[in-house]
Design brief:
mainly alpha, disordered N terminus, 68% helix, Tetracycline Repressor, domain 2, homodimer, DNA-binding
Chain lengths: 220, 220
DNA sequence: GTCTATATCCAGATAGAC
DNA sequence: GTCTATCTGGATATAGAC
């Protein structure tokens, strides 16, 4: 079972890369070196074998941080998942802020969001897998479903605004959001599952043309 | 955390309902009463709290079948998940057969498939959840990823055929399939997560018009 | 804050009578 | 085929020195 998918980068690296582009970074979750080691190892393990197939001893081995330290920092095992969740959704929020500023049209924003999702998938599949498959009911009892998380509602809000503004034709906003993001999410799942072998970027233009064609108000 | 979603029917009932419409049913996985009780209980528990949060003693309590009998029939815990997987994908295959016969046009077939997915979601959310979230890596090691399962490839084949036939405009078949099924799957996930409160059927026409509009070759 | 050693519990799985 | 009683390993989590 060889994986021919791109080498994962860690959540920490993904965040770093983002920050380096910022002039005045938003107050960010500060993490000690040990905490980062644990989160990096955990993200990789959760992605490779799943949350429940990952034991604390596994994380101890992979992170080279002791059991005691892990419990000191994260309280319990779900604390690790929570910390990852907050890290990732926080980064995503920041990225959406950037997109909102950099693009004024709804079409531009939605396309940039899809590009962002593709980019995360290619650069850090483990991060995308965590977002897609983080089942609140199973190991994030303190959190709402990922579909109602801040970044997701934000994405829907962009679409709803586009309808108000008349950039998108009159249509149920929920359906519009599904038409915009649904195909992209589907492709990215197929990519993560190894069904698609090409980098997602190669599919972006054709995907976007078709998605947007069915929704834009007139010419756009 | 009140769930206002439709009452679940069991996989067994879903299959039964299907069979009752058949004249000459395909050879089907025969299951004893005890086996059905176990599978019904397990499907519900897996959906409610997740596979890993469900213990064998939980299933014993819910199914009123003893530990010994469960192991006798299913070998081990993954055997229960496997049996569910085969049951559900088998039923789905049969339903796709019916659709292939009942509809000749690609548009008709794809629309019927989406309708089927919506119907399963409404009638047996647990079944749909199992299909969507059954992570082969985590608890179905013997199975390929769900995306490459027979029903899923079949769905993509319908689309590819539509392109060959000239019913769908010339476009990458993978993208075409994502454009057709992606929005529907997205809506159904939102429904399962409680974000959408209306039955999916009410969204079908508007969804389909938009999806198909971006793909049909000319007028359709 | 970090570590090792250890306690406790309960999961998955088996044995063997009926 | 079904059941009860039981084994055993390894998981989460803690204690307490440094």
């Amino acid at each position: 079972m060889q994986k021919s998918r791109p080498k994962a980068i860690t959540a920490a690296e993904f965040k770093l890369q983002k920050d380096s582009a910022d002039i005045a970074p938003v107050p960010v979750l500060e993490r000690s070196a040990a905490q980062r080691k644990v989160l990096d190892a955990a993200l990789k393990l959760f992605s490779d074998v799943g949350y429940f197939n990952t034991s604390i001893p596994d994380i101890v081995r992979a992170s080279k941080v002791s059991t005691g330290s892990i419990y000191h920092h994260f309280g319990d095992k779900t604390g690790i998942a929570s910390a990852l969740f907050e890290q990732i959704t926080g980064d995503l929020q920041a990225a959406l802020d950037d997109i909102e500023i950099a693009h004024i049209t709804t079409g531009g924003r939605c396309r940039a969001i899809i590009e962002l999702m593709f980019e995360i998938t290619e650069r850090s599949p483990a991060t995308m897998e965590f977002m897609l498959y983080a089942k609140h009911k199973e190991f994030l009892p303190a959190h709402a479903p990922i579909c109602s998380s801040a970044p997701m509602t934000r994405m829907r809000d962009f679409v709803a605004l586009g309808i108000e503004r008349g950039e998108i034709r009159v249509i149920d906003p929920t359906i519009a959001a599904a038409l915009i993001y649904g195909p992209a999410i589907r492709l990215l799942q197929l990519r993560l599952d190894g069904i698609i072998e090409r980098p997602l970027f190669e599919l972006l233009d054709e995907l976007w043309d078709s998605s947007w064609r069915s929704l834009r108000a007139k010419a756009g």
